[in-house]
Amino acid sequence: MAYGMPTYQRGGVAEVAFASQKQYLSLYLLRGDVRDAFAERLAGQDMGKSCLRFRRSAGVDFDLVRDLLRATAAVPGPVC
User: Do 31 and 73 touch, CB atoms closer than 8 A?
Assistant: First the structure.
């Protein structure tokens, strides 16, 4: 837990976080290299600087989330 939400941490630094907001579910992608690598797939998503938002649980693209988490876990990288 960090920042009041579940996080995936490596070396004490949060790389991915999850949150359930009032209007949407959030996946915080704190690794810039992973966001850049998936820029094409993230282009059609509701995305802030590092926050991927899903308005409905039925709208969650689990294949995309799985691939993002695997890419984050595969190698360490800088958190932006």
Answer: no
Here the tokens at position 61 are: 């693209």
* Identity of the residue numbered 49: K
CB 29 within 8 A of CB 53: no
Q: Which residue is associated with the tokens 């995305």?
A: 47
- Tell me the per-residue pLDDT of 12-36, one tens digit each, with 9 for 90 and over: 899 999 999 889 999 999 999 999 9
pTM score: 0.88
Radius of gyration of the chain (CA): 12
Q: How far apart (Å, rounded) are the C-alpha atoms in residues 4 and 45?
A: 25
